[in-house]
Write a structure and sequence with these properties.
Strand content: 15-25%
Structural class: alpha/beta
Largest sheet: 8 strands, parallel, barrel
Shape: globular
CATH class: Alpha Beta
CATH architecture: Alpha-Beta Barrel
Number of helices: 12
Radius of gyration: 18 Å
Number of strands: 13
CATH topology: TIM Barrel
Strand order of the largest sheet: 3-4-7-8-9-10-12-13
Helix content: 25-40%
Order of helices and strands: HHHEEEHEEEHEHEHEHEEHEHEHH
Distance between the termini: 34 Å
Length: about 350
């Protein structure tokens, strides 16, 4: 029986557990199956649909969003799902525990999640050790590494953390994502304002050029932004991306809005909302970026993809690639192939 058929049978037991516990149980069991070679026997069939984005060749346009595997410990196991690309992190220069548990909550009636994880991770050194052990890239997969700042780093010193992260991950990444949009690290979203975003992008592009010379290859930079920006703020971000020749933009992170879940159990929990209710806000940002960027910088769409039609809506809004996270919690690995089929051959 394939993984996509096993997951609906296991979901009931997993949903009886605390959301974060279920997350770790699922990943550990997937890793064990991978260790025994069962993953290849059970892997769903995902159609090839090659495309070139950010100068990279993706075997299909469906990726895993950052956050599922913060420490890069499950890359090869997650590759079983058939992703065209996988993004892991967010990693910070130093290890940090994140926010106090419980910090992840299901809203089952709305196919949604709220999390306030707070960039919990084992730090850059442990992250890179895991990445180096993985075989996904050597097998033709595209690997994105997502970097952020430590919670106790003052916002005025945020650039130092991003530069340290870029230095560390650059040799091991196909692309690097700059996360300035998590709602769960104090002041982080301030980095999306013009006064902070412009100098941050300038510093990162200078370092990217230095690293490209040092390592003999160019690794694209993408910036991940929030769904809660208004049109003027989106314009500021888009202009900064263009001014600094950023290679890609990921839209969007989780939202602080509670549209679509108000009054439901867990809806009042602090944190970022993801899942089905995020789709409208995410698509709005994708479309606004598409209009402003006019194809000069590719958009990667993420947020609220729960079925193939949602992936197609992201493409129609202007996304070249899509990423999944919360939809996998509710639908399981079958969602990857469903989205790949929905996008196959679409412009």
């Amino acid at each position: 029986m394939a993984l996509d058929r096993l997951y609906p049978l296991a979901r009931g037991a997993l949903f009886a557990l605390d959301a974060e516990t279920a997350h770790h149980v699922t990943l550990e069991n997937l890793r064990r199956a991978s260790g025994f070679g069962l993953d290849r026997l059970l892997a769903p069939v995902v159609p090839d649909d090659p495309s070139e984005v950010m100068g990279l060749r993706f075997r299909n346009p469906v990726g895993l969003a950052a956050g599922m595997d913060k420490n890069g410990a499950y890359i090869d196991a997650l590759a079983t799902f058939g992703f065209g690309f996988i993004e892991v992190g967010t990693v910070t220069p130093r290890a940090q525990p994140g926010n106090a548990r419980p910090r992840m909550f299901r809203i089952r009636e709305a196919d949604a999640l709220i999390n306030r994880m707070g960039f919990n991770n084992a730090g850059l050194e442990a992250f890179l050790a895991n990445v180096r052990r993985s075989r996904f890239r050597s097998r033709g997969g595209i690997l994105g590494l997502n970097i952020g700042k430590n919670a106790d780093t003052p916002i005025e010193r945020a650039t130092d953390d991003y530069l340290a992260g870029l230095d560390g991950v650059y040799p091991h990444a196909d692309y690097v994502t700059i996360n300035v949009s998590s709602p769960n690290t104090t002041q982080l979203r301030e980095l999306q304002g013009a006064d902070r975003l412009d100098p941050l992008m300038a510093a990162l592009k200078r370092r990217q050029a230095e690293l490209a010379d040092r390592h003999g290859r160019y690794v694209p930079l993408a910036v991940k932004i929030a769904p809660d920006l208004d049109l003027a703020q989106i314009g500021i971000v888009a202009d900064a991306l263009l001014a600094h020749a950023i290679d890609g933009v990921i839209a969007t992170n989780t939202t602080t809005s509670r549209d679509g879940v108000a009054g439901l159990r867990n809806a009042d929990e602090v944190g970022g909302l993801s899942g089905a209710p995020l789709a409208t806000a995410s698509n709005r940002v994708v479309a606004a970026l598409g209009r402003r960027l006019e194809g000069r910088i590719p958009v990667i769409g993420v947020g609220g993809i729960m079925r193939g039609a949602d992936a197609r809506a992201k493409r129609e809004a202007g996304a070249r690639l899509v990423q999944l996270y919360s939809g996998l919690i509710y639908r399981g690995p079958s969602l990857v192939a469903e989205c790949a089929r929905a996008l196959r051959g679409s412009p």
